Amino acid sequence: MRVPPYHKEPSWQLFFSGVVLGAVIGWVVFLILYGAIQERQVGDLIKAKKQLELSEARYHILIEDNEKLKEEKDKLKVQDIKIVIINDDKYMLGSLSRFSIIEGIKEDLNHLIAKEVKGVKDNKELLKKTIENKSYELDEKKYFFHVEDLYIDTTIEIGLVIVKVE
């Protein structure tokens, strides 16, 4: 068996030269497109790195500011006490009765004014027990409370629930 001599025919020479030229042109186009895509990805990567560095710098600045604010907040003093009786309508307390009871509780907690917020927060349970273990008398009735909500900042906000009336 013998291989036919295709290299001498012009149609086959044209076909093979077209295949080789097409492969070379395809390879060049591939390299150009691949290079353009890689260049764009490198640009995106550099942008992402710069954005990450900027975000990390901002994060560290915010962390430092937060720590400074925490230190300043620990030095803050209690300025006011707000008390709300949540279920006063159940026991039909009038506004004057409610005001008198709230003022009595405020008198008991008045020593907390001008104390540091951190110290008051550390003794939160003691504050709750102080209110819950004492009865507040009004019109020959004793009212006992349970502390439902307690928020301590420069203003102490206390939400009370009437537990028992004697």
UniProtKB/TrEMBL annotation:
List each copy of the Sporulation membrane protein YtrI C-terminal domain by range: 79-160
Alphabetical keyword list: Coiled coil, Membrane, Transmembrane, Transmembrane helix
Matching Pfam families: YtrI_sporulation
Record carries keyword Coiled coil: yes
Q: Which stretches are annotated as coiled coil? A: 52-79
Q: Which residues cross the membrane?
A: 12-37
Do you know which InterPro entries this protein is assigned to?
Answer: YtrI, YtrI_C
Q: Does the keyword rRNA-binding apply?
A: no
Under which name does UniProt file this protein? Sporulation membrane protein YtrI C-terminal domain-containing protein
Which source organism?
A: Sutcliffiella tianshenii
